[in-house]
């Protein structure tokens, strides 16, 4: 969050980006890029999407670098006429955001995103969104879609570290079985109807220190990100 604020304070940003502060110490911050040219709304905390512009939400990885996603996806969003939202899951409030696990009094990460969209773009609150996630962000996106498939028009997953396995005998997030949090309800049938793209880049083959290597995950999904993506898609 501090890096995002610093970057937005720099002279003449290439895009009309707004920093959305968390509403309280347990909430979620984000960056918002509107495809519109509503310069008269400078300083506003939200955009009024009366036209049916799609909303693309890009979720950062474990190292929490949303500005990299901004650099990559802002030109695409501008060219396509999409609005772009980049949530910032701070490590202090959301250390396990990729598992949809809350910390202390913070909101559950999936519910925090629903709140952020309602605050940033109220007219989008009941629409379906385009979701992209990289690494831990890809974990978050497919788990968000398991719980809220009615909010996802399509999703793209890049190099997830590991996946929630389609097995009802395993509890969530390891599998599609019951979660410890009884309020977290999975909807796998609807999830399987959501259009999805999955890939692993040629430089994502390294088994780094952030990649989960417990015996059960390795036996079930493989050692590396490519093996795990292929095994999960086949399953």
Could you describe the 3D structure shown?
This protein is of the alpha/beta class. Helix content is 29%, strand content 16%. It has seven helices and seven strands, in the order H-E-E-E-H-E-H-E-H-E-H-E-H-H. Strands 1-2-4-3-5-6-7 form a seven-stranded mixed β-sheet, sandwiched between helices. Strand 3 (55-59), helix 2 (66-80) and strand 4 form a beta-alpha-beta unit. The longest helix has 15 residues, at 66-80. The chain is globular and about 50 Å long.
| SS-derived structural category | alpha/beta
Report how far the terminal alpha carbons are from each other: 37 Å
Q: Which sequence of SSEs, written as H and E, runs from N to C?
A: HEEEHEHEHEHEHH
- Rg is 17 Å
Number of strands: 7
- How much of the sequence lies in strands comes to 15-25%
The helix fraction, in percent, is 25-40%
Characterize the biggest β-sheet.
7 strands, mixed
Poorly predicted runs of 5 or more residues: 1-12, 37-43
Q: Look at the structure and give the mean pLDDT.
A: 87
Question: How many H/I helices?
Answer: 7
């Amino acid at each position: 969050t501090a890096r995002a604020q610093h970057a937005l304070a720099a002279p003449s940003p290439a895009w009309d980006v707004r920093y959305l502060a968390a509403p309280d110490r347990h909430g979620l911050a984000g960056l918002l890029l509107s495809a519109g040219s509503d310069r008269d709304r400078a300083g506003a905390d939200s955009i009024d999407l009366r036209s049916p512009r799609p909303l693309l939400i890009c979720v950062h990885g474990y190292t929490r670098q949303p500005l990299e996603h901004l650099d990559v996806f802002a030109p695409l969003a501008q060219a396509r006429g999409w609005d772009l939202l980049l949530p910032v899951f701070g490590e202090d409030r959301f250390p396990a955001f990729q598992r949809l696990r809350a910390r202390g009094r913070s909101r559950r990460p999936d519910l925090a995103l629903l709140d952020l969209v309602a605050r940033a773009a109220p007219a989008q609150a009941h629409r379906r969104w385009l979701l992209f996630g990289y690494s831990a962000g890809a974990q978050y996106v497919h788990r968000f879609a398991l719980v809220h498939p009615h909010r996802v028009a399509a999703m793209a997953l890049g190099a997830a570290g590991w996946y929630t396995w389609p097995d009802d005998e395993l509890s969530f997030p390891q599998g599609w079985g019951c979660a410890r949090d009884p309020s977290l309800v999975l909807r796998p049938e609807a999830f399987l109807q959501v259009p999805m793209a999955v890939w692993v880049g040629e430089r994502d083959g390294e088994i780094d220190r952030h990649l989960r290597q417990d015996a059960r995950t390795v036996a079930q999904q493989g050692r590396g990100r490519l093996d795990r993506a292929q095994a999960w898609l086949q399953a």
